[in-house]
Amino acid sequence: MPIITKISIQKNNSERYNIFLDGEYAFSVDEEVLARFQLTKGKELSDFDIAEIDYEDDIRKGVNTAIHYLSYRMRSEKEVRDYLKQKEINEMVIQEVIHKLYNLKYLNDLEFAVAYVRTQMNTTKKGPGTIKMELHEKGISENHINQALQEYSKEQQIEHAKALLEKTIKQNKKLSEKSLKQKLDQTLLRKGFDIETIHLALDEIDFKKDESEEWDAIVEQGEKAHRKLQKYSGYEYEQRMKQTLYQKGFPMELIEKFLQEYSL
After folding, report:
1. Is 27 helix (H, G, I), strand (E, B) or coil?
2. 3-state SS of the chain: helix, strand, coil percent to 5?
3. Of 65, 184, 200, 264, whose CB count within 10 A is highest?
4. Where does the RecX second three-helical domain start and stop, copy by copy (predicted)?
């Protein structure tokens, strides 16, 4: 069996050691692996010993890689697994690395989910549906997601929804009341709010238009439609204008009034 003839510290990493067998470099190991296998000059190593040392050293390298990855922010188990796969680490080694990370308290998917929900609800206006979808993508279980989302109170959801509604109203002043209502619903649904929250938020927001505002809106949309349809004339022009403005959410009575008063 080969014998360890020399052990030297690596120049660029003081926690790793080069192992020489029978006068030639054979492999390197982490300091912890060196101590665990009591690797010393003069010790004989069988092929099985070398294979076991190599496997344990791969695990140690995987743990160190994962801890470095986790040093930037909390990660889910799936995020760590995916990262280690990108580093082309063997699946069996990854499984052992994950096990050690849990024992060392570096991984906890429930704590991760709770922290993620708190961050999203304090720094964004996302609804719980969107946050839930993002946690699913990060590999968090349904049970952990539901527990974590308890942090996001209905009151805060409504406040976030109202803020989004107010912003959307300001950005869409020239829409008809009907189109604006549809826009508001779509915005909150897209952001991940449920129907109940949307209705509660809308009840607290004044988005209804008075006659003057609705008239300003149809004038704005009517002039835009005219620029697109001015190549038509007579009956065809009138019908296309009516269809366009009706699709924009304006009532037919207001459309008729607009066409009578504006000879575009």
Report:
1. strand
2. 65, 10, 25
3. 184
4. 108-149
Q: Give the separation between CA 75 and CA 65, rounded to whole angstroms.
A: 13
Measuring CA to CA, which residue among 172, 261, 262 is closest to residue 213? 172
| Euclidean distance between CA atoms 18 and 9, whole angstroms | 6
For the segment 29-57, what is each residue's pLDDT rounded down to a tens digit?
Answer: 999 999 999 999 999 999 999 999 999 99
State which amino acid sits at residue 45: L
Phi (first) and psi of residue 19, to 5 degrees: -110, 125
Q: How confident is the model at residue 263 (pLDDT cuts 50, 70, 90)?
A: low
Which distant-in-sequence residues (6+ apart) come within 8 Å of 196 by Cβ? none
Which of 184, 262, 168, 236 lies closest to 254, judged by CA?
262
Q: Distances in Å between the alpha carbon of 184 and those of 20, 173, 210?
A: 70, 12, 18
